[in-house]
Amino acid sequence: MDGITYQCLGLLQLKTTILAVKFNGGVIIGSDSRASMGESYVSSKTINKLIQVHDRIFCCIAGSLADAQAVTKMAKFQLSFHSIQMESPPLVKAAASIMRELCYNNKEELQAGFITAGWDRKKGPQIYVVSLGGMLLSQPFTIGGSGSTYIYGYVDAKFKPDMSLEEAIQFSTNALALAMGRDNVSGGVVHLVVITEAEVKHVVVPGNKLPKFHDE
Amino acid sequence: MSSIGTGYDLSASTFSPDGRVFQVEYAMKAVENSSTAIGIRCKDGVVFGVEKLILSKLYEQGSNKRIFNIDRHVGMAVAGLLADARSLSEVSREEASNFRSNYGHDIPLKHLADRVGMYVHAYTLYSAVRPFGCSFILGSYDEDDGPQLYMVDPSGISYGYWGCAIGKAKQAAKTEIEKLQMKEMTCRELVKEVAKIIYIVHDEVKDKAFELELSWVGEVTKGRHELVPKDIKEEAEKYAKESLEEEDDSDEDNM
């Protein structure tokens, strides 16, 4: 990579912390709420990075917010049309595949990565990662964004398959709080969305209610 | 039962005074000229049977297939103009492949039947093209949705069925199919019955030699559409031939 390209890529980092985790009966998708321009200006303290693309399917976005919003808008439209044609709620895999096609076919222009998570009748709760270039991967839990680098150790150590809802909420909140504590471009409040067969619940943990760790 | 259109039947873009599109009806007649194909849905799968008439002793055995694989989990049995049918099988394959490419999973059969039906219907709208002269039966098996069977005819209509027949002996075949309790049968039992029905409806006098093409998709094949294995097919044909002889014998007794 020559000097100029490397510099350009350096400016457009994935500036956020996002995660998704499967628990017994559903999936939690979560993010911080900070949007930044450059390395030091916070353009929004309360942005919602969890976008609903269908009744039981959410995406969280990382990278260029403009690109991410354009992709999710297109995916939402395609998914709603697909679901009406199928006469049934779409599969999470279908939603993730639509995002993947958009990311892969437009990889030259776009700089956005996604975590797609949700519940469907066929396979239950699922999480898919669609990376920058258009890779699609299914995982039991996943973290993303610039803040994620600080919490790999925590999530690897603390994740257990088939957690209860309470354990999963605690796990997600802790992970996001730790990342927000160390990453300067992640912060604000913790947004969590809990998706199960029965309902979609939005949980917000404001800054002063976040779990505290020994360094504070 | 043949009605002549006289003037209103020259193109598919013309209605007759009594509201019929004769070109589409003539296309359906083309299907009735072809040999019979049947598809039956049972508890755990779908079985297809086709009466493949052998027009020449020089034909290689197993050539001129009338049953196609559309996707791993979907099979298609055809009747009518074979060239039209082959072209439609390619169209169906593309539909299934594009769906998988866009949405990451197997195409649901109802959706495939709707899409191919729409394509067939498009050719019934214009005078510049003729309608497809073939009907086809689509079948698939999925762990969650179970076995599915749909039939598409030259007008572009598609219906879901538990059992259907197309081709010259379709009425006789339908009568035989209605006698079956297919909802309680398994694929292995059904294979023998399908072979028997094809043997029953085959006209020994008018059409001499025929080859039976049998395929299935279901729990027994783990959701993949494949030709029935040679040993099971031989067993089914043996059952079919023996049943025919029994019926012949019982007829003689009654006399």
TrEMBL record, chain A:
InterPro entries: Ntn_hydrolases_N, Pept_T1A_subB, Proteasome_bsu_CS, Proteasome_sua/b, Proteasome_suB-type. Signal peptide: none annotated. Keywords: Cytoplasm, Hydrolase, Nucleus, Protease, Proteasome, Threonine protease. GO terms for cellular component: cytoplasm; nucleus; proteasome core complex, beta-subunit complex. One of its GO terms (biological process) is proteolysis involved in protein catabolic process. The active site is at T16. It catalyses: Cleavage of peptide bonds with very broad specificity. One of its GO terms (molecular function) is threonine-type endopeptidase activity. The keyword Transferase does not apply. It is found in: Cytoplasm; Nucleus. Gene3D superfamilies: Glutamine Phosphoribosylpyrophosphate, subunit 1, domain 1. It holds the Pfam family Proteasome. It comes from the Eukaryota. Belongs to the peptidase T1B family. Component of the proteasome complex. The proteasome is a multicatalytic proteinase complex which is characterized by its ability to cleave peptides with Arg, Phe, Tyr, Leu, and Glu adjacent to the leaving group at neutral or slightly basic pH. The proteasome has an ATP-dependent proteolytic activity. This subunit is involved in antigen processing to generate class I binding peptides. PANTHER family: ATP-DEPENDENT PROTEASE SUBUNIT HSLV (PTHR32194:SF0), METALLOPROTEASE TLDD (PTHR32194). This is Proteasome subunit beta. It comes from Cyprinus carpio carpio.
TrEMBL record, chain B:
It comes from the Eukaryota. GO terms for cellular component: cytosol; nucleus; proteasome core complex, alpha-subunit complex. One of its GO terms (biological process) is ubiquitin-dependent protein catabolic process. InterPro entries: Ntn_hydrolases_N (IPR029055), Proteasome_alpha (IPR050115), Proteasome_alpha-type (IPR023332), Proteasome_asu_N (IPR000426), Proteasome_sua/b (IPR001353). Residues 8-30 form the Proteasome alpha-type subunits domain. It holds the Pfam family Proteasome_A_N. It is found in: Cytoplasm; Nucleus. SUPFAM superfamilies: N-terminal nucleophile aminohydrolases (Ntn hydrolases) (SSF56235). Keywords: Acetylation, Cytoplasm, Nucleus, Phosphoprotein, Proteasome. The keyword Acetylation applies. This is Proteasome subunit alpha type. Belongs to the peptidase T1A family. The 26S proteasome consists of a 20S proteasome core and two 19S regulatory subunits. The 20S proteasome core is a barrel-shaped complex made of 28 subunits that are arranged in four stacked rings. The two outer rings are each formed by seven alpha subunits, and the two inner rings are formed by seven beta subunits. The proteolytic activity is exerted by three beta-subunits PSMB5, PSMB6 and PSMB7. Interacts with AURKB. Interacts with CDKN1A. Interacts with MDM2 and RB1. Interacts with the C-terminus of TBXA2R isoform 2. Interacts with DNAJB2.
